[in-house]
Amino acid sequence: MNKEVLIKELQFKAIRSSGAGGQHVNKVSSKVVLSFNVEKSEGLNSREKTLLYKNISSRLTNDKELILACDDSRSQVQNKNKVIDRFFDLLKVGLFVPKKRLASKPSKASIKRMKDKKKKRGDLKKLRQKPNY
User: Basic residues composition bias: which ranges (predicted)?
Assistant: First the structure.
């Protein structure tokens, strides 16, 4: 994953934010919408693209495009920075590969303890039986 190339591939669009804001809200486009086409990206290799398709497929459109929006702040610059941070956090989650679990076997001491416990329990049950004359 090449961050510099990815940042160049991002497309931003500023639109009017919804919600309260008084007279100022109709004049300023402070909401920032980020769009990123995973399929056409040159900053990701094919393995990373398949991982993204698998892990964040619910966030992608039919055209394999990721769309994120931010309207937390009244400042367009702050919203742009926040949406870029969210984008890279989402990529980190999408590219995460869990460690493969290695099967382990019980130690010799634990096997011995288990057998001793089973033997004790069996002897206890034997003592409960009616005597066989």
Answer: 110-133
